[in-house]
From TrEMBL:
ANK repeat start-end pairs: 1-21
Native species: Ditylum brightwellii
Keyword terms of this UniProt record: ANK repeat
InterPro entries in UniProt: Ankyrin_rpt (IPR002110), Ankyrin_rpt-contain_sf (IPR036770)
Signal peptide positions on this chain: none
Any one Pfam family match given in the protein's UniProt record, by short name: Ank_4
UniProt name for this protein: Uncharacterized protein
Gene3D superfamilies: Ankyrin repeat-containing domain (1.25.40.20)
Length: 128
């Protein structure tokens, strides 16, 4: 399966933090696919996410977090406008219970939903 392929690539010197053309790293792809085994394997091999050390306390922190992921940076201005226009504050934002609602709040519901899952999961991980 995927874990075996990842292990083979790692044993042959693959760069665990190599980004594809859209800025996606293997660990982000594992999170997107909800493959905990591969994510753990990559983390053990040194894979990191630019936001591993971030504290998310405001909606602006969330946008900064998404910005640091480097995924689809062209959507950042749209997110900032949506947050301002909808007057979304941190209390409202952190009460959101699913990825789709989070993307709607950020004004980027045209993002593929699996990226919403990535953002939501990582954001929730940083809340704890």
């Amino acid at each position: 399966g995927h874990r075996e392929v990842a292990a083979l690539l790692l044993s042959n010197g693959a760069d665990v933090n190599k980004q594809n053309n859209e800025g996606v790293t293997p660990v982000l792809k594992a999170i997107q696919k909800q493959n905990d085994e591969v994510e753990s394997l990559l983390r053990a091999a040194g894979a990191s996410i630019p936001t591993d050390e971030m504290d998310l306390e405001t909606v602006e922190d969330v946008v900064s977090y998404i910005e640091k992921l480097g995924i689809r940076p062209e959507y950042i201005p749209q997110m900032k406008t949506s947050i301002r226009d909808k007057n979304i504050n941190a209390e409202i934002f952190f009460e959101i219970q699913d990825a789709t609602a989070m993307l709607v709040a950020l004004g980027v519901s045209n993002f593929h939903i699996s990226w919403g899952d990535v953002f939501y999961r990582l954001m929730k991980a940083h809340q704890s």
